[in-house]
Amino acid sequence: MHDVIIIGRGPAGLSAAIFTSRAQLKTLVIGKKEKSQLIYAKHVENYFGFPEGIDGDKLLQIGAEQAKKFGADIIEEEVINIKKKKTFTIKTSDGKNLEAKTIIIATGIPIQWAGIKNEKELLGKGVHTCASCDGPMYKGKKIAVIGNGNYAAEDALELTSYTKDVTLISHGPKFTFNSKLEEQLKKNNIKLKVARAKEFVADKFLRKIIFEDGEEAFDGAFLACGTAGATTFASKLGIETKDGLIKVDENGMTSVQGVFAAGNCMGACRQIAKNVGDGCNAGVNIVKFLKAKDVFFDYAKE
Ligand SMILES: Cc1cc2nc3c(=O)[nH]c(=O)nc-3n(C[C@H](O)[C@H](O)[C@H](O)COP(=O)(O)OP(=O)(O)OC[C@H]3O[C@@H](n4cnc5c(N)ncnc54)[C@H](O)[C@@H]3O)c2cc1C
User: Is CATH 3.50.50.60 correct for 2-110+228-301?
Assistant: First the structure.
């Protein structure tokens, strides 16, 4: 029986594990380093304590070592099912059935690829998925945002802090923004282009985008298609969600007792500093939750 099983081995899950294992809770982290979004970040320079910047892969490695140092176990597997009775049964891809008193969902949000040729190869080399992370690289440059909904509009507006030359490309037939965002887009002179992008062309760095009916030079492109959430576990456990994102209270607990969440699967501000803070909040409150609960419920007698 684990005190806590953390699903996700990104910054949110590892940060939670540091807090729970250091507080002597039997902690297991399940997840793959290669599936964390952070693996794509080659030079993180906005995270506290690393003024010269740090490679995302290295940061994940250090975080895992720190959690292990305090006693957390980490397995590189995938969770394929969760069942709740009094405790939680977690089934992994290689057939393990694991028991836990509490769980933390820290599964992040997978990158929403746009299906444009070379988008994966050029990630970090002119193609990006995070305006607040990589926007500062494009001061005064010409950039494109690919997407047609409110999420894409938000990204385009955020990028106007760095350059006045922002084009929003629908990558489909038409745009669907709410009226407030539409007003803001106009006010900030963001160009709207209804076109489907086919290919990113680069030398070492992005040079131009080829569309179904022509091409245009750009210095950078930000993918902002949709906003999918990791809601599979939420629906299995009956956790409340909003717009595909998991809802939590101020302690990081979801609408289901004993299930906490942290990181990008909860939405807004998709940055490591926030992910790590969420992990801390869930971890600290799980310690309180279990200590208070042990007074009323003795798992060992079950
Ligand atoms: C190109 C790029 C550059 C970035 N640059 C920066 C930057 O400079 N600064 C910054 O602050 N942020 C940056 N980010 C954002 C940052 O990487 C994310 O905010 C962060 O990784 C999210 O953390 P997380 O723990 O919520 O999820 P993730 O790091 O995405 O981790 C999710 C984890 O969940 C696991 N998981 C998912 N489903 C399952 C399952 N069924 N079973 C088991 N495990 C599962 C995965 O294996 C993975 O370990 C960047 C992102 C990208 C893509």
Answer: yes
